[in-house]
Amino acid sequence: MRVLLVYPNANKKVVSWGDAGAIAEPIALEYLGAVARSEGHEVRLLDLRLHNDALADTLAAFRPDLVGLTGYSMHVLRCLEVCRLAKELVPGCKTAVGGHHATLEPVDFFEPEVDYVVVGEGSRPFRAILAECEEQADRSSIPGTYSQVDGVFRYGGAPQPFDFAVIPEPDRTLALEDRKDYYIDWMRPIAMIRTSIGCPFRCSFCSLWRIMGGRYHTRDLDSVVSELGTIAERHVFLTDDEPFINAKRMFLLADKIERSGIEKEYFGYCRVDSMLKHADLIKRWRQIGMKRFLLGVETIFDGESSGYRKRQKREQVERGLQLAAELDIHLMCNFIIHPDYSDKQFDELIHFIEENKVEHPSFTIWTPLPGTGYADESIVVRQPNGRPNWDYFDLQHPVTATRLPKKEFVARYFNLYMRFLSKYYASDGPMTVALMQRMLQGVLHKAVPELAAKAMEGDTPPVGHE
C-alpha cells in the first residue's frame, strides 16, 4: 500500500505567522513511518509547516491508500480538512488520526472523513490499521482505536500496556530533504530523541501526565545511545516530558554517551526543583554538551504556583536562574500568563525578568487544555457545533474571559514580547527582528488590529508598563 503521513500546519487566519517560531522534526510520524516500512509499504511524509501548499498536489500524485495524521488541539480542524481533501481527491482512501488531542478528546474526530482515531501510543494500533486496510477486513476491534463502521465509531477496547521495546527507531530518512530546516531558535538543524515518557508530577495546567495514566516509563539506555549515534545533526532536543527525575539513570546515560565518543549539543526540558536538587547531574550533562534548558518557571507568584500544583517558590526560581548562569547553561524560561492578570501582575513579571536578567523569556496564555480537568463552560471561543474552536488553542490566544478588557489583555501580552524583542534575535539563527515583528502582529491581528498595524510601522506604544 501507499501510506502518506501528514504533519498539519497552523491556521494562518488565526496566527498569520503560522509555525515560524520553531519547527522541530515530526518524530511521531517518523515512528509510524518506520512501522509502515517494516511491513513493506511505500511511505511518504509531508510536513505542511514547511510545505503548506503541497497537500493537493501530493495527494493527486501519490494517491495514498492510507493517510495518517498527528497533532495537538490547535491542529484538530486542520486535520479534518486534510482528511476531507484526501477523501475528495483519492476516493477509497482511508484516514487515521492520532496524537495528544485524539487521545484526550477523540470525539472531535468522530466525523465522516475519519476512519480511525487512535488513543495513546500509536505504533501497535497503526500496525493493525495497516493490516486491516490491506486486507479490507472488518474494522472494529483494534485496541486503543475507534474505528468507523457503517457511520458509527466503535471502540476496540483499552490500549495495550505501553512498552518502549515494541516501538521502532524513527525513520529519519522520510524527511531527509527537510532536515536542514528543522530548528528551535539558533539550534539549527535540530533532531529529537526520547529517553523516557510520562511525568510523575501533577501540574494542573498540563495534560501530559494524564496521557500516560500518571506513569513514568524509561527506555533502555543502550538503545538510546545506539539511536543517538545514527543522528547526523549536531543539535539534539531531548523530547522527554521530564528527563532529569531519575538522577542515577541520567548519570549513567551521560557516562555511556561520553564513552561512545558521541559529541552533540543538547537542549531539553527541566524543572526548577530538578535543577536545584540535582545540581551535580546538571553539571555532568553540561560537560557532555547540554547547552540549553527549557525551564518551566510558569509563574513567579507563589499563590499561583500552589494553584498550579507546581510545588516551587519564587526564591527557588531565582536560585535556579543563578545556578544555570554558574553552569553556563542557556535558559528559555516559560511564563504562563493567566487571563485573570491585572496590570499589577504584568508589571511585576516585567520587573522580575529584568531584575533577574532572564536571557530568553517565553510566554504562553493559560489555556484549559483537554485533560486538565477545567470546566468546559469557561471557554468562550466556539465552533458552530458548540465545541471549542480548537484553532485558538495555540497558547497565544485567550480562550476564556479575561479580567482586563480583552483588547487590553492582548495588548499587554503582546508588549511582553515587544519589551524583550532583542532577546529573541540571534545572528546565526533563523529569527530576525523583522520576522519577530510579523509573528507578534499575528498575535494581535484579531484582537487589536490597530496596534498590530503600529507594530509593523515600528511605532508600538507601551501599554501600562509604567
Question: Could you walk me through the main structural features you see in this protein, from its secondary elements to its overall organization?
Answer:
This protein has 16 helices and 17 strands. With 466 residues, the chain is of the alpha/beta class. A seven-stranded mixed beta sheet has the order 3-1-4-5-6-7-8, sandwiched between helices. The termini are far apart.
What's a concise summary of this model?
Helix content is 34%, strand content 17%. The protein has 466 residues and is of the alpha/beta class.
Descriptive keywords:
466 residues; alpha/beta; Rossmann fold; pyruvate-formate lyase- activating enzyme; 2 domains; seven-stranded mixed sheet; six-stranded parallel sheet; 17% strand; disordered C terminus
The total strand number stands at 17
Q: What is the fold-level CATH name, i.e. the topology of the largest domain?
A: pyruvate-formate lyase- activating enzyme
For this structure, what is the CATH class of the largest domain? Alpha Beta
Major β-sheet profile: 7 strands, mixed
Q: What's the overall average pLDDT, rounded?
A: 89
What spatial form do the alpha-carbon principal axes imply? globular
